[in-house]
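[Discussion] Sanity-checking designs against the backbone

I'm trying to build intuition for which residues belong where. Below is a C-alpha cell string of 156 positions. I'd appreciate it if someone posts a full sequence so I can compare it with mine line by line.
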C-alpha cells in the first residue's frame, strides 16, 4: 500500500470513527469525559488524527530515521531570532488585542489572591485553536509524499 493512500485511509478512519462514536453512541463519548466536547479526549484524538497517522506511517515506512526527519521539520532553526520573538510575543499579543477590541477576553481570568491582582492566561486556550493537530500530518507527511510520488499541483 502506498504511504499516501495509507495516510488518507488512516486519517479518515480515525476522525470518522471518533465522529461515529460521538454521533451514534453519545453515552460512550460522555462516559470517557463528561462535560463539554472540548474537554473530551476523543475530541483531541479526532483533531490530532493527521499527526497521529503521520507518526504511525512514518515509523512504519521510514523507521527511526524517518521519524527524526519528520519531527525535525517542526523546528526550522533557519529563521532569525527576531522571527522567533515576533511569533512568541507578537502572535499572543495580537490575539489579546483582538479579543480586547471585540470585548471578549474570555481566555483571561482575573483573580484576587490576598488582595493582589493576578492576570493569567487559561492554559486551555492555546491547545484548542490553530492547525497544530493537523500541520505535521498534512504538510509534514502528505504533501512531501504527494510531491515524491510525482503528483504535482496544477498551475494556476
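Best answer:
Here's mine. Compare freely.
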Amino acid at each position: 500500500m502506498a504511504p499516501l493512500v495509507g495516510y488518507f485511509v488512516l486519517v479518515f478512519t480515525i476522525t470518522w470513527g471518533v465522529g461515529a462514536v460521538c454521533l451514534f453512541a453519545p453515552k460512550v463519548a460522555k462516559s470517557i469525559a463528561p462535560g463539554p466536547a472540548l474537554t473530551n479526549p476523543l475530541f483531541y484524538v479526532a483533531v490530532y488524527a493527521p499527526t497521529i497517522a503521520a507518526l504511525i506511517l512514518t515509523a512504519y515506512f521510514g523507521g527511526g530515521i524517518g521519524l527524526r526527519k519528520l519531527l525535525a521539520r517542526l523546528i526550522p532553526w533557519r529563521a532569525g531570532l527576531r522571527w522567533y520573538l515576533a511569533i512568541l510575543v507578537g502572535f499572543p499579543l495580537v490575539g489579546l488585542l483582538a479579543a480586547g477590541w471585540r470585548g471578549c477576553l474570555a481566555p483571561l481570568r482575573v483573580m484576587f489572591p490576598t488582595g493582589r491582582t493576578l492576570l493569567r492566561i487559561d492554559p486551555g486556550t492555546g491547545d484548542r485553536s490553530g492547525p497544530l493537530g493537523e500541520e505535521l500530518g498534512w504538510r509534514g507527511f502528505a504533501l512531501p509524499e504527494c510531491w515524491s510520488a510525482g503528483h504535482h499541483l496544477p498551475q494556476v
